């Protein structure tokens, strides 16, 4: 009788082990299928976020290619900000209106109103800044845009986070321009009516972003190394 009970327990253990193995195998298959589905979803729609565009910014440090910052842009919620950002990214020739408004020639616009071969000129503990390449004309306000000058900031529910791409609102009128900020830490004052208008986020290669933030800078935020955005490639999603 004892032998029969012993065999019965062993059979139960074997059966339970078999069930557990089947469960583990099924779970692995489910995870594998989910990964495939997510990859397909990313290929079709860019990412499982509300992105309308992706901007890949190729970053060089001291002449060496350090990789791309992949930035997803919220074109539905911030169409003006995204349009202006993309115009700088691609340096399109329809910047002729800037030539008339600011008395710049087309060569200046093609060379300056673009991220290509331009520096990331400020790196602080919490964020870095780039984009204001007409500083000598507008006192570091970044007021030159494809809309002529600064424009009233759009409002959305996105907040600062690691990798958030934002514009700083002017306190006196809520306007924004063409200077951009990428965050490594959440801003202390955040929200719909805060100082920052978020219209995108770095979603790939955050290690490169952290590397840039740990690059030694002067007291005023000026990097001690030569950091440039050498190329910008745009992908548009439907």
Automatic annotation (TrEMBL):
Q: Which InterPro entries match?
A: Cyclophilin-like_dom_sf (IPR029000), Cyclophilin-type_PPIase_dom (IPR002130)
- Gene3D superfamilies tied to this protein: Cyclophilin-like
Q: Which GO terms describe its molecular function?
A: peptidyl-prolyl cis-trans isomerase activity
Q: What keywords tag this UniProt record?
A: Isomerase
What this protein is called in its record is Peptidyl-prolyl cis-trans isomerase, cyclophilin-type protein
Work out whether the entry's keyword set contains Isomerase. Answer: yes
Could you name the domain of life of the organism this protein comes from?
Answer: Eukaryota
Which intervals hold domain PPIase cyclophilin-type? 56-234
């Amino acid at each position: 009788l004892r032998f029969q009970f012993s065999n019965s327990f062993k059979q139960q253990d074997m059966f339970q082990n078999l069930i557990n193995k089947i469960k583990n195998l099924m779970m692995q298959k489910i995870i594998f299928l989910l990964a495939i589905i997510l990859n397909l979803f990313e290929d079709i729609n860019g990412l499982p976020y509300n992105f309308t565009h992706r901007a890949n910014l190729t970053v060089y440090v001291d002449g060496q290619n350090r990789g791309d910052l992949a930035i997803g842009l919220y074109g539905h919620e911030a169409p003006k900000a995204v349009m202006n950002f993309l115009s700088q990214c691609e340096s399109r020739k329809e910047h002729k209106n800037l030539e008339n408004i600011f008395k710049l020639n087309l060569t200046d616009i093609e060379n300056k109103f673009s991220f290509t071969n331009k520096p990331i000129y400020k790196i602080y503990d919490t964020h870095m800044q780039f984009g204001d390449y007409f500083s000598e004309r507008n006192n570091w306000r970044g007021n030159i845009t494809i809309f002529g000058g600064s424009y009233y900031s759009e409002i959305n529910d996105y907040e600062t986070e690691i990798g958030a791409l934002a514009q700083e609102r002017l306190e006196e009128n809520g306007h924004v321009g063409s200077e951009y900020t990428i965050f490594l830490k959440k801003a202390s004052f955040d929200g719909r009516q805060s100082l920052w208008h978020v219209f995108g986020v770095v979603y790939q290669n955050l290690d490169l972003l952290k590397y840039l933030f740990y690059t030694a800078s002067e007291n005023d935020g000026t990097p001690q190394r030569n950091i440039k955005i050498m190329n910008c490639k745009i992908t548009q999603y439907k």
